Each structure stands twice: as C-alpha cells, then as structure tokens.
C-alpha cells in the first residue's frame, strides 16, 4: 500500500498558522490552493483595525477583480477604502516584461510586497490579475479586528491551460441558479476556467420538448445568464449533450423512439436518417446559448451499439469502425457551428488503430476513475494519433453516501500527473450522480484537489492538499476540518478492509433482515464500531471547529456532516439489527425458566418499544431524510427530490410496521409466556453466539 494512503487510516493534527500580527509563517505554512509555483519571504501585517485599500488602474476587468476581492473583505468584517490601511495594488505588465517573468504569461501573475504596507498584484492579462486576486483572498486570515494579511513574494502560472469540471445534471440533481452562481464563483476562486454541464434530456430544446420535464430542464435564458455570469469569472461554459449513448430519457418517448438502436433504448442508431439531423438541431440550439469555442458530444458507454439495427454492420465492419465513423459524421454535421468537439475516449480507446481516422481538430477526453499507478496506455492512443487530449478524473461521489476521497485523490493525482507528463493539455474533473442522490456540496474536497493538480506542475501531493484544505476552503485555523475529511476517508477504508469496497448507497438502503442484508452484515458488523467512531469523530471535529471560529462555506460543512451521519447510520443499522436477533435468541433461551421472565421482557422491550432498536432504525431514516431534503433544496430544484424522499419514507415505514408488529409479539409473550420462532416474527438468526 502506498504511503499516501496511510492518511486514510491515521489521523494526524494539522498545524495551521496562527492569525496574529506576530506570526511570521513560511511559504509552506500558507496552505494555498493551488500551491503557487514560486513563493518566498513571507511576512504578515494586521488589517483588522485599519482595513485594506484596493487600488486598480480603472480597467473594467481589474475593477471587477477588485470588487470581487472587496466583497471577501466585507464578508470577513474588514473595512475597505481607508487611506490609513494597507494597500493592494493591481498593475499591468507589458507583454515583453511578462515573457521575461513567466513561462506561460496567459494566466500568470506576480505578488510582491510594496515599500509601504501592502502588496502589488501584477500580470499581463485580465485572467492573471483575476487569479492573483484569488490568491490574495487566501492570504487574508481571520475576521474583523483579528484579521491579518500575509505578504509573500509569489510568481505563479498554470501547468495545464484547460482546467475544468464536468457536472452531471441528468441523473437526479438539477442545480438552481443561485447555487450555480456560487459554484462558478468557487471554481474560479481555485483557478478552474471551464465548467461543463452534462445534458441527456435536461436542456429545454425546442426540437425535443417532450423529453424536457417541466421544472427539470435548464432553459435557454438560464443558460445565457450563466454564460454571462461565468465570463466575468474567466470561466468558459462547455455544454455537453450526449449525442450517441445515454439517451434513454429521450428515446423512451414514442416521438423520438424511432431514432434508437433498440426499442426505447439508450443509443442512437447511426444509420437512421433522423439521427444526424437531430444531433444538428440540439447543437445548433446550444450554439445560440453557449458561444464558447467548444462543445462536448459525449459518446461514451454506447453499450447497445450492435445489438439492434446496426447488428449486421457491426458484425461486418467491427464495433470500433462503426462507432468512430459515426463520430466523424457528427463532426461533419456540426461544422456549421464552428466549435471544436470534445468526446469521451472510452470506446475509441479500445480501437487504437482506428483513432487516427478521426478529424484532427477533435479533442479526446480520456476518462478513468480508479486510483491505479499509471495511465500511459489510456492516453497514448490519442496522443500518438495527433489528437489534443484531456484527462477526466473523478471525485468518486457516485453510488456512495459520501465521496470516497481515498480513491478520488489517488485517481486525480496519478491521472493528472501522467497527463501533464505525456502532453495532455487539459483536465476535466467529473461529478456523476448515477444514484440520483448526489449533493454537490459533498464534493468540494475532490473538486479542489483537481483544481490544484491541474494548476500545479507534476505530481501533486495528497498530504499537502489535505493539510491545506481546511484553511484554504473554510478558513479553519485549527486543522480540524481537514481531520474530519480524513476520518471519513478512514471510514471508507474500514469498509474496504472488511471486503465491502466503501460506503455504498446499497448498505444505507438494504434491509439488514433480508438475505442480502445478512450477507452484508457478516462482513460489516465486526467493523461497525470502528466505522461509526470514524464518522462520529468527523461530526465532533466539525462541531469543535465551528464553535471556535466563523468558517467559510458553511453549506459544505453541513454536507460533510450529513455524509458522516449517513455513514454512522450504516454501522448503527447493522449493529441494531444484530442486537435484535441476539436479544430474541437470548429471550427464547430464557423463556422456559420463569425466574428469567423479567430478562425476557426486557429483551423484548429493547427490541421494540419507545426506545427500541426497531424505532431507532425508523428514526435514523426519518431524521436523516429531513436533513437530506433540506440540503437538496438548498442547492437544487425540486425536480427528482420526490424519488429520493420516497426511499426515505418507504424505509422509515418498513420499520414503523415492524415496530407496530412487535407489539403483538410482546402481547403474545405476556399472555402465554411463549415465543414463536424468529422466522415467524421477521427476525434472522444471530450472526454470533448469543449471551448465556
């Protein structure tokens, strides 16, 4: 096991610099995300009383960066505009000077102390000034009168020019506009410059109106609003519309079903006369809303290709040839839009000898989400063919009650490292919501590591990122937020050690009394206490950090706690179910001895009563369900929420029913002093020997 994985098992205190005027931190103490390329000579000055003045040359872009920084100061209770305060000055470098200063001037910036109190942010470009201002935000520590400004010497520029996030809007959560703007602001603050919403059926196309459910699709006007908002933050919107596979929620409608490879399936039939015109209509509509230079056609996981209408063609020519030929046809169909097309690389990767047939202006996005040691063979088919290539890592949030950041960080670190080494020009980190339960605020840990890895050159350190996360994202001087994330990483690792992969949704929802649940219980119950302590430690650390300081991004802290409570409930549910089985077995053993009837009654009431285990599990589903409901509506539209709440309600009702039925067992005992077999009262046999 690699050394960096030890963070998943051992939780170490993380030293964060003190927010006092006397502290003189080193560059390593700054905990900036992304870490700057060069940093020396750190000092600090107090700004809480005198405030901070921001000076720019009145360029509109610089003025926006200044106002954005000023808002951060206001949020922290720090005065602005005072002549007596420290000064932050924005200055422009000439193109010639920028070439001398920076290897890549396009987004580069420099921060240096002034001769007086303050610092200068200088850059050649609008983006450079903006990114310098984002770094300055992280140099402001504390709030109100206790605030300080750290003043280092920094030269910085990105390793990869294209640094983005793909956000799944088609399998459950569809963000509201307020959250999307917060998301854009946050991505930009950590120097991402691309945002790619993922559409299957959740854009309100005029050409396919039936597929867009009312309240469940982004409208063109909302898209234009988002584009304009993102542009101010130097983020390009790259819309992804699946143009080959993942189209079941379109093709299930009769009006569009004739385009499918199989009846009401998920894949367009390449040979259907209507397929290319439909793709053209979709992307024509998108081009009017999203004016950037790129569009993403998806085209991943076309598993049904060759199973229906193209069966004979695939048998004759091969799957790869049919697939890649259709991609080339899509490219030709979309030429009038004048966009460079991105496509997912999974299918083409399996036919490396044919990749060279694709148009050379297409961009291959190679996606892999596991934490394996080397990704060379996944990237070489595209790079050797002359295609521009991006890497697509994943935050490993899908089908889990909380992201598995052990896998996410390992995947991002190695994939982005190999991408940089081999010549990939971009990173598109990914959030997927296959389970329909995703809460984006749970994903920031992996999203921010992706931002850091794409900006920083070479292999990014997981340990350094973990140490920096709490300070850089939450302004947590204690290190406890980072420790809370480590506790949840350790919880995932505990389940993996037990042979259960990680904190899967399935373990949260499965009935522990069912045969499937009993199979899980055999592995989970022995580690349930360890699992729960990690989750409960995370909750405790969050509470301690929040009590000690006013922290940034409180919505993300709430999401961490919700994830921890869901993990804790997994352990509790299986433990409580095992206790029910063991208590009933004990009661059966003692029922024949009238001197033990008091113990029998106590066992029965412990299983089901006001404070019984059956009621505890009921309460877990209903209480966590309420937290989930509120968290969902904070970020998302109501669309799809009912599907998730139905699961919470059904699960709670299952245990309500069991609690009610248990009253009959107790009454039967009180009337007859006999107990029926466990199977007749809905209980499994205990997994371990019962107490004698």
UniProtKB/TrEMBL annotation:
Q: What molecular functions are annotated in GO for this chain? A: beta-N-acetylhexosaminidase activity
The enzyme's first-digit EC class, named in words, is hydrolase
Q: Does the keyword Signal apply?
A: yes
Please give an example of a GO cellular component term from this record.
Answer: membrane
Domain Beta-hexosaminidase bacterial type N-terminal residue range list? 31-146
Record's keyword terms, sorted: Glycosidase, Hydrolase, Signal
Per the database record, which ranges form the Glycoside hydrolase family 20 catalytic domain? Answer: 215-372
Enumerate the catalysed reactions.
Hydrolysis of terminal non-reducing N-acetyl-D-hexosamine residues in N-acetyl-beta-D-hexosaminides
Active-site residues per Swiss-Prot or TrEMBL entry: 301
One Pfam family name is: Glyco_hydro_20
What EC number(s) would the UniProt record show?
3.2.1.52
- Biological processes, Gene Ontology terms: carbohydrate metabolic process; glycosaminoglycan metabolic process
Q: Where is the secretion signal located?
A: 1-23
Transmembrane stretches in the record are none
Q: Which PANTHER family match?
A: BETA-HEXOSAMINIDASE (PTHR22600), BETA-N-ACETYLHEXOSAMINIDASE (PTHR22600:SF57)
- Family, per entry: Belongs to the glycosyl hydrolase 20 family.
Protein name per Swiss-Prot or TrEMBL:
beta-N-acetylhexosaminidase
Taxonomic lineage of the native organism: Bacteria, Pseudomonadati, Acidobacteriota, Terriglobia, Terriglobales
